[in-house]
Amino acid sequence: SGSNFSTITVCRELHEMGFHVSHSQITRLYSRFTSLDKGENGTLSREDFQRIPELAINPLGDRIINAFFPEGEDQVNFRGFMRTLAHFRPIEDNEKNKDPTASEPLNSRTNKLLFAFQLYDLDRDDKISRDELLQVLRMMVGVNISDEQLGSIADRTIQEADQNGDNSISFNEFIKVLEKVDVEQKMSIRFLH
Amino acid sequence: MLTPLLLSHCSQSDEEGKEDEHADSNDPEQMFQNIQFQKEIIANIRTRAWPMRRKLKALKQAREIVLKYEGRLTRTRGYQAAGADLLKKVSRLLYNIVVLFIPWEMRIKKIESHFGSGVASYFIFLRWLFGINIVLTVMTGAFIVIPELLAGEPFGTTRSKTIPKEHLASAQDLDTIWSLGGYLQYSVLFYGYYGPVRKLGSAGYRLPLAYFLVGMAVFAYSFIILLRKMAKNSRLSLASASDENFTFCWRVFCAWDYLIGNPEAAESKGAAIVNNIREAIVEEQEKKKDTSLAVLISLRILANILVLLSLAGSIYIIYFVVDRSQKLELEKPELTLWEKNEVVSVVVSLITMIAPSAFELVAQLEMYHPRTSLRFQLARVLVLYLGNLYSLIIALLDKVNSMSMAAASVVSGNLSDSTAFMATISQPGETSLSTLVSDISISENHNSTIATIAMVLDVNTSISTSKVTMATMYNHTVMFEQNKQKKPDECWETYVGQEMLKLSIIDMIFTVASILLIDFIRGLVVRYLSDCCCWDLESKFPEYGEFKIAENVLHLIYNQGMIWMGSFFSPCLPAFNVLKLIGLMYLRSWAVLTCNVPHQQVFRASRSNNFYLAMLLFMLFLCMLPTIFAIVRYRPSQHCGPFSGQEKIYDIISETIANDFPLWFSKVMSYVTSPVVALPALLLLFMLIYYLQAIARSLKFTNNQLRMQLQTVSYRRYKVPGGDRKPDQQDGDITSRESSIRTPSPRPNGSVTNFQSPDRRGNGIRTITQSASRVKTARATFAAGAPRSPTVSILHNGTCRSKSYHHVAYNPPTRYSSENIHSDPLYRKTIRPLHSAEAAGIVTAQSYVGRRPYTTRYVIVNEHEARKKLLRSATRVPRHFRAEDPGGEIVELIPRNTKRYTPRAPHLHGHPHRSNPPQSHLSDEEEEEEAGGKRESRRGSFGQTHRPRSLSDLQQPARFYIGERLETKLSMASKDSHTARGRYGGEAQKGDWEDMETHTQSPARHPHSPSRLVHSPPQGPGRRLEPQVKPKTSRSKLEPSLTESDSASLASSSDQQNSSTDQYIQVIHNKEKYLKSEARQGKLAKKKSKASIDLNVSGSKDLVCSNV
If B855 and its partner were Cys, which of B579, B662, B874, B952 is the partner (CB 3.0–4.6 Å)? Predict the structure, then answer.
């Protein structure tokens, strides 16, 4: 029932974000949203996300789901859903030479990286500490590797990336690490086209 | 006319757009794209958040453009584009389908994810061999077997295709079949079945020729495919080498594939990540491992001695048992071949089982990286297998020899008009004499010689029959007795083929048995009996089997070697091998996944591993030798096979040339094969090889250089994190410039400083080589983007000047105190806060500098930090700044028009130049500079930026500390500046050192003659100023402080400044870490620095001496 309203407002909102999507694309995403929304209350809960198989089996799935929820909330509406997804919009050629004065769109390289960074930055202090890294590693490898080995991996990782000697990875260092990774390509989903 | 670009918010690119459009109208490709773009706009305009008026306007324009230009394009163009799209999609689909059809791809991936790339490399190798065997099968099948089956004479028609009557009864016995006798022996499986008819069937297929050519082609193809694969691999490894940066970070952050939605795939991926990390751990541990070298070397020597001993021992044992079995053959002729060889095969298989494990134990002594030790293991086991194989080959050839000699003696006997041939042989072990009587009736037809050999045993005849023949027939008996069951008409080729096929079959059986026994049964026992056993079976003694890569790979190689060796004599051998490999693939992969545990130490095996291939090549060569030898050396059997009746097998070629080719061809061939042609051709080949080798070497060199350059460029490109970098116009320009600039290629050893400043005036390249005592390697290349670098030309105007400059720049330890300031990455951190600390004094400078995008930049690649950081800094000071260094510790930045008195400047390393403006020199330079500026402005890269003329806002002098003093200041600063800035600071710091050196050096050289100091000032202060310039733009824009006279020509030279080129300095830093405490030492360092500077002055004197 609220679909029309949502589509229009979200559309406007997205435009404000510098995010051009067509009506049909929003509609498609909205239908996806509603199909995920098992409670049919116009919002998604964590459980709704966990039903997505890709997220369910992803060791970092919980982190990704977290990224959809603003601090302290456990429901996300379509608008928030879209805002998170906007990070994954591909960067188009005609956007690259855009007006430099405009604020950076959500799907810029930096914002994509920031999204990834926040997956690892649990306490949101803009640093990936050794403990946070260890948690990620533990999630990925399970119990197959001993703690001290994982610890040494985490140490090496930080040592590699750390430039200012604070034994953690800041966002800038994170960017540096991934500078050769084609983030624009890899963190893009063609769901809008 | 408004343009599409306007529509996409690009307000300021209006003019550009027009130009684009103008260009468009000529280029159909661009025109087409433009039209597509317009159509897109028309389609999407509704969704734009624009006012309606604008939308309408844009829509109208877009429609106009489409209408106007669409007609110009042909309709086919549209179809072409659509077709190209479709083609792309279809090809992608096809590619996906093709991947589906790559045999066992999924299986291998699964194994790889669980067992690591090392185990997977075995299966990939197996698959590759499978491919080769398919081709070999097709070759032999299509050109030999099928023609023979279709057009050859049917079974039972000729003598060579008929089972002899006396064997017919036993032809279907299991025993006969097992030894490949009976029907199998007289089938297409073996050489003997093929008929000697020169032209087969109505089509006149030349089977004998084809047989020979295919036999050779098998080898040729194998060689070519092997070498090609190796070449490809080495190319791959060349391309994928390096890039060891951030391995751990990537493994941690980029490991997961977020598109995985299938639980099984997720499990595999998880296992793969675990393996990956374990591989990384192993690599890391290997790097860290450091035992004392002497111990290690002695251990390795010991290990090699042990291995050599065991190799020699095993080869001796094999030799011994082979010898024994041969004796046995003589002594007990009634034994079958199998019984005689029983001991040999048992011993050999025992050795092949035990020795590799022994080698493995020995390899643990050596403490190599697992990958290296795998290779050693492979090489050692290969030698072992070769010993095994060659003992067999020699035995075989021995028999072949005797067979063909028998045939030869038959012929010779025939020629010496004896119709009956009797040989008597004494058996040394027994008292009775066995006489062999061979009755040979030979028809006069040479081609169908029929030999009947009757063997009479236990006949006591006089020994005196013929002693001479006895000796020669010694061997013959062996052979004859072996083939007692067979027909007397011997066919040694078939015999060899039988042996090889038998070997291959036995090998297969053994493999299957060992997999089932050693892996499967053991796994079962360990799994189910561990509960009722007093110790833990799973972790203690039997454990689960590990997949032994070395042995398995070698087994494949060995197996393939047998195929190569036998394929000439048994054309169906490759086909058999294909089946065998398929079976092996399934069995092995099943066994690995069910009964094996991953190796304790998983290690990375590169896909482009040439080692297996090299061994295979070695094997191919060794296996080709006996075959070729047999073909060349022995006479083909006279009554079986395609070459019967010929003197040598290869005669078929010359015969064909003589009979079937025109006369001129055989003439040509005779010329070509004569030494007159062959020798020069050989020489030419040698020369060609040498030439190509030389080219390859130089290409390799160039490759390395280019790779270095690429690395540097890519680092620079990403240098500034997107977050704190404001996209301004100069960025694009800078990047483009950067990419056009030569980057240095660091050399690991040798402290070479290279400066290249190819500018127009032909200053050419100056290379200064010097050995710095502490900077182990410092190679910096100044590549000034050639023509548009007037500033550079200033810097390097005189050779001697640039020399001194660079010299100073790169020889810090000689002049500075013991801290190696240059090389320390940590140093940057200490410098970072400078800006805020000095903010008060610098504000003006900052804002001022922010407007000037034109600077000469020095890019300093910090090798010591694993090339991670590429630094860029401005190296020039605004011209109206002057550096001042009153106390020897403080550098002051003073606007040029500020009169500031610096009492101590002249005799310290300050800037004597200021007191003595070297007008005469600079005027030249300025002219050049201006000329350059004009050139540059014509190029018009970015002329909008101007150097501020008003210097009044720069009244406040900025104070800078250099050396430790600088750090002191820095450490006091607040921490709000971020890393990027810190980096620049560090870089700038380097610049500082350089110019400070310049200052210090000049006075040192000519203590009281300031007029000589002309060269140093221009670049000196500029670099020192960098740190303060950074804050706002994250890229400092500074200019050299030139002399007063220069400041007058500010306006004219400003353009030139724009064009100043980037300069790169690549510094490979001293390994010695700069002390962290350095930063904290703070104010204490004051005195120190003073002292150190004094030191420097004296040091530079030495330098001068050495330099001049």
Answer: B874
Contacts of B245 in chain A (CB under 8 A): 160, 180
Tell me the pLDDT tens digit for each residue of B206-243: 888 888 999 999 999 999 999 999 888 877 766 555 45
pLDDT of residue B222: 93
In the three-class reduction of DSSP (H, G, I as helix; E, B as strand; rest coil), residue B1060 is classed as: coil
Closest CA to B318 of B356, B341, B349, B344: B344
pLDDT in tens, B1045-1060: 333 333 333 333 333 3
> In sequence order, what are the beta bridge partners of B707?
none
Which of residues 723 through 742 in chain B touch A, CB cutoff 8 A? 723-724, 726-728
Give the nearest partner residue to B47 out of A21, A116, A161, using CB atoms: A21
Centre a 10 Å sphere on the Cβ of residue A181 and count the other Cβ atoms it contains: 17
| pTM for this predicted structure | 0.53
Rounded distance, CA B1057 to CA B851, Å?
Answer: 12
In the block, tokens 């089977």 appear at B207
| Residue from B245, B10, B407, B240 nearest B863 by CA | B245
- Residue B718 Cα, gap to closest chain A Cα (Å): 6
B17 against B670, higher pLDDT: B670
Reported as a pLDDT band with limits 50, 70 and 90, residue B1101 is very low
For residue B219, the model assigns a pLDDT of: 93
Chain A residues near residue B256 by CB distance under 8 angstroms: 58-60, 140
B259 Cα to chain A: minimum distance (Å)? 7
Q: Please choose, from the candidates B62, B52, B50, the residue with its C-alpha nearest in 3D space to the C-alpha of residue B9.
A: B50
Rg (CA), chain A: 18
Other beta carbons within 10 Å of B935: 16
Q: Which residues of B touch A180 (CB under 8 A)?
A: 245, 714, 718
pLDDT over threshold 80, residue A98 = no
Is A4 in CB contact (< 8 Å) with chain B?
no
Specify whether the CB–CB gap between A156 and A134 falls below 8 A: no
The torsion of the CA quartet B525, B527, B532, B535, rounded to 10 degrees, works out to 90
pLDDT computed for residue B357 by the predictor: 78
Which one is predicted more confidently, B938 or A171?
A171
Q: Do B270 and A141 touch (CB under 8 A)?
A: yes
B701 phi, psi to nearest 5 deg: -60, -50
Q: What is the pLDDT of residues A68-80, one digit of tens each?
A: 887 777 888 888 8
* pLDDT above 90: residue B767: no
Probe site for chain B from A54, A169, A176, A187 (most B CB atoms < 10 A)? A176
Distance (Å) from the C-alpha of residue B565 to the closest C-alpha of chain A?
46
